[in-house]
Design a protein that fits this description.
The protein is of the alpha+beta class and 319 residues long. It is 42% helix and 23% strand. It contains 11 helices and 12 strands.
Length: 319
């Protein structure tokens, strides 16, 4: 039989799995009798772990308490948490860096040396490039997430592309993170349509609005919906271009916030992108490094033709 401290740790580890346990199941797992299980449950409660009784055959479940008790992590979970904290320390959420570093310091103090070596090796071999984007206030993310969870209308001030501020009222649906930026997808009540908003440009107004019944999602693939919303829809010129490479190769060069890629076959794909400048579109597609054919808009086709003549004239041999 395990010593009491080891037995408590084993019991806690079992209870941290997201399921209900009967007293008999716990007793069998730990090779003890039911009375010992009940005593150990009471000891965990005394230590601050909220072990709830479940109706039925003396069932138990670890719940949420008023304070955060210590957690047990296996090796892979500990490494995952440490890597996540290091990433968060240099991420795109404002104000989270210090708390991430404090949590990481506490974790590394108790890690076995074998895990510290794995994490240190990963850190030493990794170079992080700053995102170069405006950080997001974590309280703003929390306010949006709460409105989504409770199905409350969200009112906020929004800084538009031209720098002006506008009031928006939405039925928030989901937050989407692209790796560099955070976006809110929601139903805009004034425009009676789905819209995407950059969270770093958004300032929630408190209190939130009334509850709303959920609407069908604007698309099955919200990532694709967001990509179209930020890369094509807002712009004056919306381009459709065939690229002479596979969709996988194109995705390696083209960010989801720049354009939407649709596979055609093994050697070609279709790019949907947009811009307010024909020059910007012409230069952008010309620098891909692979063949392309522009289908629309016609203004871009004419612009590329004129550009081709100017470039040809510029490199033609002199008299």
């Amino acid at each position: 039989m395990l010593e009491t401290s080891a037995r408590l740790l084993r019991l806690l580890s079992l209870l941290q799995t997201p399921r209900d346990w009967t007293g008999r199941e716990l007793a069998q797992r730990m090779d003890v009798d039911m009375r010992t299980v009940r005593r150990d449950i009471e000891k965990l409660r005394t230590l601050g772990y909220p072990v709830h009784a479940v109706a039925g055959a003396a069932g138990y479940r670890l719940g949420a308490g008023a304070v955060l008790p210590p957690l047990l992590l296996d090796d892979e979970e500990a490494v995952a948490v440490a890597v996540g904290l290091r990433t968060a320390a240099g991420g795109t959420i404002a104000g989270i860096e210090d708390s991430s570093l404090r949590a990481l310091t506490k974790l590394e103090q108790v890690l076995p040396s074998r895990l510290r070596h794995r994490i240190s090796a990963l850190q030493a071999a990794t170079v992080t490039i700053p995102a170069g984007t405006t950080p997001v206030d974590p309280e703003t993310l929390t306010a949006i997430a709460g409105a989504i969870r409770d199905r409350h209308q969200l009112r906020f001030d929004y800084r538009t592309h031209d720098g002006s501020t506008a009031r928006r009222t939405t039925e928030p649906h989901r937050i989407v993170h692209t790796g560099r930026r955070w976006y809110l997808i929601g139903w805009d009540l004034d425009r009676a349509d789905w819209r995407t908003y950059r969270v770093d440009r958004l300032q929630p107004r408190i209190p939130t609005g009334p509850r709303f019944p959920p609407r069908p999602a604007p698309a099955i693939d919200l990532a694709d919906f967001l990509s179209r919303g930020v890369s094509t829809a807002p712009y004056r010129y919306q381009a459709r271009i065939t690229l002479d490479v596979s969709a996988t190769q194109a995705a390696d060069r083209i960010s989801a916030t720049v354009g939407v890629i649709e596979a055609v076959d093994a050697t070609s794909c279709l790019l949907h992108t947009g811009s307010n400048s024909l020059d910007e579109l012409a230069v952008y597609v010309g620098l891909f490094g692979f063949g392309f054919r522009v289908h629309e808009p016609p203004e871009l086709i004419d612009h590329l033709s004129a550009l081709m003549h100017r470039i040809t004239a510029a490199i033609a041999p002199g008299p």
